[in-house]
Amino acid sequence: MSPARRSSATTGNLLYAQSGGVTAVINATAAGVIEAARARGVKVYAARNGILGALREDLIDTTKETASAIAALRHTPGGAFGSCRYKLKSLEDNRAEYERLIEVFRAHDIRWFLYNGGNDSADTALKLSRIGKTLGYDIRCIGVPKTVDNDLAVTDCCPGFGSVAKYTAISTLEASLDVASMAETSTKVFILEVMGRHAGWIAAAAGLAGEGPDAAPHIILFPENAFDEAAFLARVKATVERVGWCTVVASEGVRNAAGQFLAEAGTRDAFGHAQLGGVAPVLAALVKEKLGYKYHWAVPDYLQRSARHAASKVDADQAFAVGRAAVDYALAGMNAVMPVIVRSADAPYRWKIEPAPLAKIANREKKMPKSFITRDGFGITAAARRYLSPLIRGEAPLPYGKNGLPNYVRLKNTAVTARLPAFKP
Amino acid sequence: MSPARRSSATTGNLLYAQSGGVTAVINATAAGVIEAARARGVKVYAARNGILGALREDLIDTTKETASAIAALRHTPGGAFGSCRYKLKSLEDNRAEYERLIEVFRAHDIRWFLYNGGNDSADTALKLSRIGKTLGYDIRCIGVPKTVDNDLAVTDCCPGFGSVAKYTAISTLEASLDVASMAETSTKVFILEVMGRHAGWIAAAAGLAGEGPDAAPHIILFPENAFDEAAFLARVKATVERVGWCTVVASEGVRNAAGQFLAEAGTRDAFGHAQLGGVAPVLAALVKEKLGYKYHWAVPDYLQRSARHAASKVDADQAFAVGRAAVDYALAGMNAVMPVIVRSADAPYRWKIEPAPLAKIANREKKMPKSFITRDGFGITAAARRYLSPLIRGEAPLPYGKNGLPNYVRLKNTAVTARLPAFKP
Q: What does the entry give for GO biological process (chains A, B) (predicted)?
């Protein structure tokens, strides 16, 4: 950093908040933030339950945590300070909330705000980075990337994705070994439903489990393609006849030609409501009805995004690195930026962290390239493998206790004494 | 072994077969069998797809596999030689199949038969152990325990169970950390459905994830108790109000007071069929309908029983040990026995392998003791923890490749040349 980029704000406190769906490694980012700030002598507050804690002046004093507790965040899944799904409205629509945030920042001498989340959070950080000047308060806002959806713009990949990708590839491989051994007299079709409402990144990662026409997964269903029932059933049938069994990985966001989620178009629960999050049972029923094969289906749901026990080392390292970089950028006086991951080589994989303007990231969505899906629509291409494969490499260290469970840390999360009147977001 | 117990059958080949649902560690048993037999200079054939391969004379020559491939079975899930769900009828009902088996044994000089499975397989091994004498063929039959259901009699626990128990406890812990961090604005109730049609062993293991009224899982639903909707909903509500969120672990075999599986009583698919394997979505719909809470549910299905990446070291060690002991018993001339796990101490946990008569195991089912379920029906007792806790201890070694995936082995599975006419089981 050149001295010219340094801000006058060299004193004050740093506020860190987690936002949106949590991941297996978002706390590694928190560890990166807190360890880097401690090394620079800067106090870190964390907002309890994301931006809501900042609005409510419900702040956590991270200086009350031991160095070993903070280090243990590197291997603890979930959001250690709480997260939230809460999108700030625009400045015009809800100026009061922005003013409140500045008020809270001022009351606790917060000069740096690090917001760890996805597209929406990048937008919030961007808005806050601008409002400080309007309201006459010197605040630097840094977005810190996080999302299992891998849909942030600019960054090559998103911390959180590599681990869910690894979990999904391992699970696909393992369950397929199971099905292969049972297929003669039992299950012939296994359907694994994975997260991904709008983009098939996680479903694509399942493709890393095997390569070649006979290797599982035999069929991947992406939200990028309209579901073609006839083509799907024909492929299932051909696979069972050739291989003896068939593993299907389906993105939760698979839609029919009319644009409806398959999960909603099919099953209704006991009360007649459309069932959500259940494309796997819908596909299974279809396979049973039309082809008569015995099936099993799995929906790991939260298990996939919290599976720190199967995390990727590359992902955990990147999550830590963006946290540390965010502090560097903030203390160097940068504003309205996000530390992003830049890939310099596929093989051997090389990456580095660089700052990118939040304006290029906020509210944008990175789609999976069409070139990642095979022409038949059911698999991933060599280009997809080149991109995905490095992201699941290495096993992130995880200490286990004598009880056979991972040693996950629970922080004290001591509240900072409030100084302002209550505020209801 | 005393020399007096030695059989005259000191030459000949050994046949090993896998039966029923496979596990994360059944191949560790195969490794134990093959390594022990190789050390004693005995050739091992494996039946392809369990007893079906024996009936069809579809045998695999394991001497074609390298020592390192056999060693890799110790960490490879699924059934390396194929398994099947096929129960031999009684001798009276289908004498032809027994005669065929003896014919195959005779054709390949098979003097020892090791059948790796659950209750049904113990029954088959027992029947075969008797028929040899009737048909004038000297064969020693050993049952080798395996089942994630943990329902075999005599043995303290079943190889395969400890690993699914560990996977379930870890997954419950991890997903609960996720839910805890999101609960304020998102999911308040998380429901994890686990295997266990008749007994709640796996559901009980989820209880190891936490202890105390506020720790997840907050509610466990066992097949041992009729589902009490009002009590369940009251407990969910009280937990959400007190803790902020609630993790429920439900055994797939939960039934209502009328004895119907809840999974079948509720959801119907797009074709109007009752959905199987879906107690979690039924419970989720109930929570939504009656309490209005946002929910998520997960059904890991085969992922749980194939999750070698999260296997218990105790379980993997026991799986290997029963395989080795089975060879020792067979070569010592024992017949109609099973190597079972005997617990000599809870803490520190100590176990050993001993032979037990198949007659005491075949077709029996070990229930979970009533003393393992708390009086309110929603949790596990200290006695359950004492029993379960040692079984998930230690992490079984697992080599990963540079590609970030476990190095699972795929055997050559070279067929032995058939010598008999074809037979259709």
A: fructose 6-phosphate metabolic process
